[in-house]
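Trying the structure run again after the queue cleared.
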Amino acid sequence: AITGRASKAFAGFRDAQVYSLVPPAVRGLGSSNGFTMELQNAGGLSQVEFNAARDKLLALARADSSLTAIRLTELPDVATLRVDADQQKLSTLGLTQANVNSTLSTAWGGQYVNDFIDRGRVKRVYVQGDAQFRAQPSDLSQWFVRGSNGQMAPFSSFAKTSWGQAPTTLSRFNGIASYEIQGSGAPGVSSGDAMNRIAELAGQIPGTSVAWSGLSYQERLSSGQAPILYGLSLLVVFLCLAALYESWSIPIAVLLVIPLGLVGAILAVTLRGLINDVYLQIGLLTTMGLAAKNAILMIEFAEQEEKKGKRVIEAALSAAKIRLRPILMTSFAFILGVLPLALSTGAGANSRIAIGTAVVGGMLTATILAIFYIPLFFVLVRRGARDGIAKLRGKPTGHQGGHHDTDGDHNEPFGPPEPQGPHRPEPA
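Done. C-alpha cells:
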C-alpha cells in the first residue's frame, strides 16, 4: 500500500522515472523485494535484435494484469556517436586500428604523460583535446592520426560518423549478454506465480533464455524442497514417538490428526486471500505441532487406560472424557493469544497476519474435529495393528478367539481375559 501511494505521487515527474521499492527480505540478496530475472542473449542475436526482444518482453509484462512494477535495472538506451573506419583506407595510409583508438581516447578522454614537481608537490600531466575542439561531432574531421611511418592523416580521409542508440552498460550473466529485469506480482499473486508468468512471456521471444538471481534464484533453488522437508519432519516425529512409546502404532494415530489442522489453516488463509509465503509455512508447521500435541495428550492417557486392562474402545472413550476439558482449555487459550496476530495492522503486519491466520484456523479445526477423531484413529490403528500382526503370525484375532498380545507393542492385554472353566449360575 505504501509503495503504491508513493508510485502514484511520483508518476507526474517528467524529468525522471521514480520507483518505490520494498527492501529484500534477506539483506544482500538483490536490491528490492519481488523477482529478479536475467534475460539472456542465448541465440546470438545482434545488439539491435536483442534490444528489440527486451522491449517486447517489457511491453508484454507491463500489459499483464498479474505483474506490476516491471522495470530495467539499467538506465534507458542513450544516443551514441558511431565512428566507422575504413580498413582498406587505413592500410593505404599506413595506419592501424590501434592508432585510431589511441587518438580518440587521448582527444576525448585524456591520457597520462608523466609527473612534474611544482613548488614541492608532484603533479601529473595529462594530454587531452581542448574543450572547444571536442564539443561537436564535426570536430572529429579536424583531428589527425599519426601512423607508424610518422605521417599524419585526417579522420575525414578514412572515417565516417553516424548517430545511433546503445545501452549505457553491457551486462553479462554467466558469461552471456543479458538485461536484468525486476518486478513483482500484482496484489494476490504470489512471487512464484509471478516468476512463472514472466518466464512464460519470455519463452514467447525466440533467441533468448531466462536465468534468476538474488532472492528469485534462492526461491527457485528451494521451491521443490518443501515436500521433502515436510516428509523428513514427519519421519523424525514418527521415530521420536515410536522411541518414546515403544510402539509403532501409537505414532501413526498421532500423525493422522495433523491433516485436521492443516485443513483449517489452508481454509482460513484461502478465505482471507493470503498467498503461500514463508510466513504461512511457519504457521503450518506450528499448526502441525499443536495438533500433534492435542493427540498426544489424549492418546497417551488412552494407552494408560488400556494397560489397566480396558478394551481399546473403552480406553479411547475414557481418555476422551477425561482429557476433553484440558484440551479445550489449552487450545482456546492459545487461539485467543494468537488472535491479535491475525488481526494486526501497521508496519510488518503481513507477516503477522499470515502466521496468525494459519495458526488460528488450524487450531480451530484441530480442536473441534480432533476431540472426535483422535479416539477413532486410536481405535482403528490399535485394532488394525493387532489384527494385521495376528494374521502374519497365523493366530486368531481378538474377534475370533481369546486375547493374544499380538500388537507388537508388548503392552498389557487389550481387554480382560475370557473366563475359564464352566459357567456356574449364581444362586437365586
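Residues 189 and 305 are 51 Å apart (CA to CA). Worth checking whether this holds up in the mutant runs.
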